[in-house]
Amino acid sequence: MQMEGVLEVINQSNLDLSLKKIAEKVFASERITFDEGVLLFEKGELGFLGTLANFIREKKNGNNVYFNRNFHIEPTNICVFDCKFCSYSRLLKQKDGAWELNEEQILEMVKSYDGKPVTEVHIVGGVHPKMGLMYFANLIKKIKEIRPEIHVKAFTAVELEYMCRKAKVSYEEGLKILKEHGQNSLPGGGAEIFDETIRKQICEDKCTSAEWLEIHETAHKLGMPSNATMLYGHVEKFEHRIDHMNRLRTLQDKTNGFNTFIPLKFRNKENQMSHIAEVNTIEDLKNYAVSRIFMDNFNHIKAYWPMIGRTTAQLSLAFGVDDIDGTIDDTTKIYTMAGSEEQSPALTTQQLVELIKQVNRTPIERDTLYNVIQDYTNYDFSKESELVS
Fold it and tell me: Average pLDDT of the chain?
């Protein structure tokens, strides 16, 4: 742990007194306030934030960097909602760039991983008016028949709100049906920014902040853990980011059901917010660091490498991040269509391990719930007859 580094920061004679107070709190494992979170964004220099965030990160997770072997299924990008930042979705009447996989095509994707040690399938997509609750419940059941041991992480709260509303069931009833058919957890998408004034500007017609939080709280009560995200770097201000994190932190206090927090960078290619410039890498790293400092009851902070690129993902590991997602296997288009750094997001396990080792961290393959599958510190890939993703 970087204890000496934090002490050096605290003892700097020229350090702003308000920042010194925050550093002392971090050193003493005390929670910082909303106003202190905003202050970190406004006054905290990158080195200062990195020192505090890395101290917390190493206190919680040592030198470990987690990843998993996963693939994505995106059944469709046809969507009833019109999010201004989205480069991915297409309205039902649009033909150009739209796709809709049928059940046979989806199950063939799952079968294509026979004999490969993937542990998770991540299912998200557009909100299609003809793909309802029971359609997806039965699809999950069939996936589990093909691959009984695989962890099914599926459907954002946006998708779930629409499914339950169309099926005329409560969130609890809908989630119970999905769980009974084999769904194990929820991804964190659709959270965007919780502040209602910002949400009205960027995604007015989809589920509200209260609904998103209620769905995740309900899932946690049913024993279905989830992730949480935040879309940053568009029209929001620092206080909106902290408000967002604070609502998540409050729910985590109540349920302890979130696995990880994932800040997601706004990308401006070919969407209705293309006139807004993207934030730079320094802002990305500051945002990861403040997230790690503020979200004290989240065990993990994830940087999604296909979105920010491999180099920034490596840098983030010194700014509070301890997870860089998984192998992906080029199975997601959500960020590539928005202009992400990685236009073919796929890494072999060996490539991911080398990426982590290059910055002197310990590569740990995990399952979805952060149980350790393999420590790759001294792993010899030459002994494998075939490298798998």
Answer: 88
Cα 332 to Cα 88, 106, 236, 304, distances in angstroms: 10, 14, 26, 12
Answer whether 244's CB lies under 8 Å from 191's CB.
yes
Residue 153: count other Cβ atoms within 10 Å of its Cβ.
24
Q: Which amino acid is at 147?
A: R
CA angle 49, 53, 55 (to 5 degrees): 120
* Lookup result for tokens 């995740």: 216
Strand segments (E) across the chain: 64-68, 70-73, 120-123, 151-154, 226-232, 258-265, 323-326, 362-366, 372-375
Q: What is the pTM of this model?
A: 0.90
**What distance, in Å, lies between the first and last C-alpha atoms of the chain?**
32
Angle between helices 34-43 and 17-27 (to 10 degrees): 120
140-159 pLDDT per residue, tens: 999 999 999 999 999 999 99
How far from 281 is each of 81, 267, 291, 324, CA to CA, in Å?
Answer: 30, 13, 15, 16
pLDDT, tens digit, for every residue of 354-365? Answer: 999 999 999 999
Rounded distance between C-alpha atoms, residue 151 and residue 185, angstroms: 8
